[in-house]
């Protein structure tokens, strides 16, 4: 445990939801937030998520669970499927916080290879603690794996926060 650390988590909400869903279980976000705090000394947990009015109660629950929500306006693809496209916002927030020395180490929660550049940046700045992959090993991006960062898989924690 990192008791004296001031670590921040940056969570791709859609990736977390889809990854856990693909494992066939539901995530207890309150337990997940406590676990992030206890296991990785996460003081601030940003959750990047698409804003949809019908999910107002979910947003309230997530905030009450200790997450700092960062909303992105949802757009719809050709098939009517909502897309939050929060990747750039997550990268920008993490980079800004790193340059402003707001945290000691970052925990990135995603299996998405789009974050490989961010992970390499954090490695070079010695500001990365781990990547937590919501997907299993086979579905976690090879681009993330190639960075050499420590990757932990949430599937291994099912008993703790499902």
TrEMBL record:
One GO MF term: RNA nuclease activity
InterPro entries, per database record: LabA (IPR047140), NYN (IPR021139)
Start and end residues of each NYN domain: 10-134
PANTHER family linked: SLR0755 PROTEIN (PTHR35458)
Protein name: NYN domain-containing protein
